[in-house]
Protein 1
Amino acid sequence: MLKIIMHGCNGKMGQVICGLVQNDAYCEIVAGIDPTVNVQNSFPVFASPQDCTMNADVIIDFSTSSAVKPLLQYAQAARIPVVLCTTGLSEELLHSVHEASKSIPVFFSANMSLGVNLLINLVKRATEILSDANFDIEIIEKHHNQKIDAPSGTALAIADAINEVLDHKYTYTYDRTKEMKKREKKEIGIHAVRGGTIVGDHSILFAGKDEIVELKHTASSKEIFAVGAVKAAKFLVDKTPALYNMEHLINE
């Protein structure tokens, strides 16, 4: 039985993962960590990682960026692998993630959906084919009105994948109202839409002369991210210290 600590257990995604694990014969959540401790759960909930007294095989994190560093410190001290699903991390926090992966296994992906990671692979292939044909590249991401970070971590991951193919020669443009001028050739436009209850929608436009190629992924439920997180936990538990992502899981 895989013993899981759910970090951010009382958040929306935390509750989705708790429901999913409840029906998984291979896993159980032995403890939760969340500043909101008055929600009824079938396991003990601690206000902070340092308060947690339960042993576990792996931690799944769906929280906020401000909670990531204390979690990594706790995980390193307790020698527990971490599936890190929180996005919108600063350069400083990303450095902390890399440092933590030297002593414990860390799974970090901008998006936990298998479909999104397939989309990224398709986008890279499209970039290889279309970049020499003068296609402009624009990314549009849409999320619910409660999402804090913008653009989404997935949109940035898509842009980075494209730029990798383009030898990192392109810049990112987030707001075209700041400077009135024509679009630069070597730029990738990234646009964020926030509204309603949109779970997640990412479109990549390759706009050429007289033709447009569009690749798109739409998430209809948060459960797709929960499924990916639990798969990652099962994947990570026996690994050696290193930084892993969804590509490692897919290839295995």
Note: The chain has two domains: 2-108+222-251, 114-219.
Protein 2
Amino acid sequence: MKPIFWAVPICALLACGGSGQSGQTVNRDTLTERQKDSILANSKIPNARAVGSAMRAADSTSAGIQRADSVARDTTEY
């Protein structure tokens, strides 16, 4: 009966720490968020075109902000 009491904790320790893989590994995705959104926008999933429309709207807004910032920098330098 006593060997069972020793076998259970030993098996539990082996199961928890015996994977053989380092805990330091990082699973990194190679696609950026924009690339993923672009793939989604071109897919045949229902309403996926809305992702493309949102990306175009965000690009337009960003371009407008950059233009306004460049004008503000040009007028405040003097």
Note: Residues 32-78 form one domain.
Protein 3
Amino acid sequence: MNQVNQPKFRHTPVLVDEVRALLINDLSGVYVDGTFGLGGHSNAISLLLNADATLIGIDQDETALAQFDPSLIKQTLHLMCTNFENLDQVLFDLEIPKVHGILLDLGLNSFSLDDPERGFAFSLEGPLDMRFDRSNELTAETVINEYSQEDLADIMYRFGEERKSRRIARKIVDMRNIKRLTEIDQLREAVAGCVDPRFRNKSLARVFQAFRIEVNREMDVLATILDSAINVLAPGGRLAVISYHSLEDRMVKKHFRELSQDIPRQPGMLDEEVKIPFLKNITRKPVIATPEEAEANPRARSAKLRVAERTSHAQK
């Protein structure tokens, strides 16, 4: 097996062999890495493609993109600093009508996660930022200090499935009434004072996840790309999504299931009752990391890969 080259900042992509096996269907095709990050997956994919293939890397974080050495890719490579929800516009600008594969790795890259200035990790010291795109105005600090107590509780419950969300929201409001919350340790203090010490880290992970999702509109963005991907995939093209928490995985699973349904027309049926499958579900169950990968790379432990293939039917 080819050795995958690593970018300047060491990063190990998850489920890389499984992604390559399930995503690639045309060795000379066009492939989109919608969450390029440090380029680990794209680099691995490129090793199996012909030289006349094309890779498109999309990421909101220009700092992460700058870590990648383009000379590692022998194919045509387009790096675009934008949100993957803008895939339609990216392809229009590049004059590429259809692609043969789209990969979305919805996890945080290690470069951003380990940077205390980004505010993603509750174990570090730094500002309450949490933006993927640092040009956006909305930060975690704004959300935590300016949203209502009810909205804070709702965010933590919906996006983090945190049972103590109301108590934590009340604590946040009490603290911000005294002093504006600007640092990671202040949010950590608010959460720690409301949960059982035995489960503190799990609650912290859920709360930080919830505010990160709100800041970056992650669920809305995922819904947009899942819908628009159908129209840019060539027949036989594949969409691969790696998710890391149940909210994402449920959305992907539901979308793939609905668009792979086949309900032929029967006498007396209304047009809206007829369903033509736009996708073929390649992975009936999510692909997960092997025990060996999970031990070697802790980020892979919660990763779930689902893949669907565009059918040859007319456009949706």
Note: The first helix runs from residue 16 to 23.
Protein 4
Amino acid sequence: MPLRTPLYAWHEAAGARLIEFGGWQMPLQYTGIIEEHLTVRRGVGLFDVSHMGKLLVRGPSAHAFLDGLSANDIPTTPGRARYTQLLREDGTIIDDLIVTCLSSTDFFVVCNAGPRPTVLAWFAAHRPPDAAVEDLTRSHLCIAVQGPRAPELLQRLTPTDLSAVRPFWGSVLDAAPTDDPVPEAAAPPETEGWGWPAADPLMAAGSQLAPTGVSGGPRFLATRTGYTGEPGFELFPPEVPGQRLWAALMAAGHDLGVQPIGLGARDTLRLEKGYLLSGQDFTGSQTPLEVNSARVIRWDRPFLGREALQAQRARGDYPRLVGLRMMDRSIPRHGCGVLSGGARVGAVTSGTLSPTLRVGIALASVDRAHATVGTSLDVDIRGAPHSAQVVRPPFL
């Protein structure tokens, strides 16, 4: 049976179309993918992405442990967040991660829902004795507030100055008290106020990130590492207060046109920006070089898979992940063949009709000879070739 986030009942009551994704029952859409997509591009939307894996890695060797498994270097400055990819010995990607440094010995790792058991098993197999991994996935929410008006909305609920939180940084925010109603069942009688746990391991680990001169409300970790290309934040409160925070954000953003947004629009938003989708743009057999992620690799340090990647880079014979823009009104989809002169040279990994551009766009894995920007190719859509051109992501 699929897992459910603490906000499942809210989504069901809001009329969301629910699907199974990554082992969780999640909202695909509420009013429609295009409408929700444009809400985020033009205003502000809320995503419940609590299905994402949330792992707290702690201990004297926590940094060395994570850094040795990561294509990118793991930050050591408290508050700094970084996108990276978790690698095997052969350089292939297990999953992509965002790692936030909470202190010199504490790191918060966000991974994808489907690969979470694999990531946990990989960590267990490589973890040194003085590093511990705690899975907070079920105990904490992840609420993404995204859109050009997202900072304005979140600022209404915290006295912390959000302008000081730069992209790919995190901070512990104070939450202003709210009188917004939440279902009684969401708050057990023994809780007070927001129902904040007495001992939240994430807050204990992130104590160095607490703002100075701010007090009065419960606190939660926020990062600025969005998956939509718009300004925004990811909030990581515990379960009970997280439900209150969701309700408070919906109420506080009424005049801003805030809407709940499903995974359908999340997919079209990320694809317009050329962001990868785990399990689709990489499936466990590709290396960072093969999925347009060479920029992620920090070569001047030892890490698992480094030698395999160096050898692959030297050969240069690997497929490339490119952007495709359709030349007609057709819509490319995952799995469509990519053709040159009628011969297959690759396949679409992600494709859609861009709600912003109103044209078909795709990420596609193609052979090296057909990966140059400006190359004309065809995409096989239901047995018919449709013209496309290789472009460099992002699409907007």
Note: The radius of gyration is 21 Å.
